[in-house]
Automatic annotation (TrEMBL):
Keyword Manganese: no
Keywords tagged on the record: Pyridoxal phosphate
Record's signal peptide: none
InterPro entries tied to this protein: DegT/StrS_aminotransferase, PyrdxlP-dep_Trfase, PyrdxlP-dep_Trfase_major
Protein name stated in the entry: Uncharacterized protein
Protein's organism: Chromobacterium fluminis
A Pfam family recorded for this sequence: DegT_DnrJ_EryC1
Family: Belongs to the DegT/DnrJ/EryC1 family.
Length: 371
């Protein structure tokens, strides 16, 4: 059996209620991806080409490269080992680089100390954009993440089995209608997505070929490099959410149950790992947190490749996508470089059931015994 890194869409395909379309998108305007939402939101927050955006150095190039290609300047700031920005360092960076906006990431579903950063930025007129791309189902003090800054971006396809789910929300002081009154773009074509997910599902059951093996990883990277050497970047119009995404967003029970399953998987996995002598990077789940992964410390740097060789969809982050500016300057960004090599991310998503948990734990036990 292969344990997939992302949830499967079977709940949607076998649902009785496919034609129900909710009448409201809630606070969101939808875009294909999170990065599209960010590029569309910046001008509405009053930013323009040449303005500086402060981003955590622990970030993926798929968010910084589009910003740079659109003419924004990106200033990097190392995060602390608790995955948070230090508000004093943020203040110093704002003064040093004349920062106009701060991108604050709620990493892996764990809520960042957003209130502190907003407190520092608001008096200076610096915009705070919450990056909720890993944390769509997380809340702080009962309020969903994305409600605290000036704006927030989402990438719901990282939490839900959908092909789209880039989304933008504003919390105040922006004429959002100027985006929404534009002609809506076409929603994503879900057919290709479902075909590839069905294929992935069959491979997971058969256990062959191992889509997480080094060989497949190398082929995938070569294809990506060959296929999209220079990705086009532009500001795109908001789209209508795809039908599967509407379906999930309208189903509050499903969303609540999804959080409950993920939290249960996290707690079971962390408890069993701790009993084996492995160390969870964040031992106790914060209240309201729906994590994207369980995070283990991997001091040998070998755990992720061991798990992937064994058919478990574990990974590092951002792995090969750490921006070159950060990867080439470990003295300025020691924590981001350390996190990129020393954290093993294990799947705990809503499609992980008892069989998958047993499989993950048996591979971990073999790993521990081999040390
Ligand atoms: C923290 C973070 N923000 C934003 C993005 C961009 O999301 P998308 O891939 O939907 O553009 C990613 C992508 O991996 C991410 O990890």
């Amino acid at each position: 059996m292969i344990v997939l890194a992302r949830p499967s869409p079977w709940h949607y395909l076998f649902s009785q209620n496919l034609d129900h379309v909710p009448s409201t998108a809630g606070p969101f305007s939808f875009y294909p991806r999170g990065r599209d939402a960010l590029l569309a939101g910046l001008p509405l927050l009053g930013l323009s080409q040449g303005d500086v955006i402060l981003v955590p150095a622990y970030i993926c190039a798929s968010i910084t490269k589009p910003l740079q290609k659109m003419g924004y300047k990106v200033a990097f700031l190392d995060i602390e080992s608790n995955l948070d920005f230090d508000s004093k360092k943020v203040l110093a960076a704002i003064a040093k680089y004349k920062v106009k906006a701060v991108l604050l990431v709620h990493f892996f579903g764990f809520p960042a100390a957003v209130k502190h950063i907003v407190e520092v930025c608001r008096p200076l007129g610096v915009k705070v954009i919450e990056d909720c791309c890993h944390s769509f189902l997380t809340s702080i003090d009962g309020v969903p993440v994305g409600s605290y800054g000036d704006a927030a971006i989402f990438s719901m396809r990282k939490t839900l089995p959908v092909p789209d789910g880039g989304a933008l929300r504003f919390n105040h002081s922006v004429n959002e209608q100027s985006v929404l009154k534009n002609t809506l773009g076409e929603p994503q074509n879900a057919v290709r997505y479902f075909v590839s997910r069905a294929l992935e599902g069959c491979i997971a059951v058969l256990g062959w070929p191992n889509i997480y093996s080094e060989t497949v990883d190398n082929i995938r990277r070569k294809l990506q490099r060959g296929g999209k050497v220079e990705e086009q970047v532009s500001v795109v119009l908001p789209t209508i959410a795809s039908k599967p995404l509407w379906h999930y967003l309208a189903d509050e029970c499903y969303l609540r149950e999804t959080s409950r399953i993920i939290q249960g998987n996290y707690n079971q996995l962390v408890e069993a790992c701790t009993a084996m002598g492995l160390i969870s990077y964040i031992p106790k789940l914060p209240v309201g947190c729906t994590p994207q992964w369980a995070i283990l410390e991997d001091h040998s740097g070998k755990l992720v490749s061991y798990l992937r060789r064994s058919g478990i969809g574990a990974c590092r982050w951002p792995w090969h996508e750490l921006p070159a500016e950060v990867a080439q300057d470990p003295l300025s960004y020691p924590i981001s470089n350390m996190l990129n090599t020393r954290l093993a991310l294990l799947p705990v998503h809503q499609s992980i059931g008892p069989y998958q948990l047993v499989r993950i734990l048996s591979v971990l036990r073999r790993y521990v015994n081999s040390l």
